[in-house]
Amino acid sequence: MRMLTVGAALVMMTSAAMTSAAMTCSALADDDDAKSAQKLAQQGRDDYWHCLAREYSRDSNQGLSEQDFGRSVAGACPSERQYYRVVLLDYLTTQYPNIDTGAHLATANRAVEAAQKDIVMAFIKHRPPQK
């Protein structure tokens, strides 16, 4: 009987240790997922910014008004823009799972808009004066 009790205690301790290890592995996996999502979001941001920078530096943009350049930027880089939006949404969802997805989407859209606005502002700032 005593061996049975010791065996049961050993099984319970082993189960507890395995559960703890599984929870630790799960936490590490979650941390890895968060880091991966963050890297993808940063890469998406960089890709989008590089594409916008190429749009900014086109010779054909030199004579454009602020409004025309703004429209050009808004339509430029559609695949990079969408990728940035998607990976940023994934990152936000990973970091803040209890917040509504609609709020994350709004944040991702604002990030895209901010990037476009920054490029337009740089265009205005560095444009030669009108004659």
Radius of gyration: 25 Å
What are the low-pLDDT stretches, counting only 5+ consecutive residues below 50? 2-15, 20-28
What is the beta-strand fraction? under 5%
Indicate the structural class.
mainly alpha
Number of helical segments with 4 or more residues: 4
Count of domains: 1
Mean pLDDT: 81
Q: Short summary of the structure?
A:
The chain is mainly alpha-helical. The chain has one domain.
Could you characterize what this model shows?
Keywords: Signal. Residues 1-29 form the signal peptide. The protein is mainly alpha-helical and 131 residues long. The chain has helices at 2-56, 66-75, 78-95, 101-126. The chain has one domain (30-126). It is 83% helix and 0% strand. The longest helix has 55 residues, at 2-56. It starts with a helix and ends in a 5-residue tail after the last helix.
Topology:
Blueprint: H1 2-56, H2 66-75, H3 78-95, H4 101-126
Signal peptide: 1-29
Keywords: Signal
Key structural traits:
131 residues, mainly alpha, elongated, disordered N terminus, signal
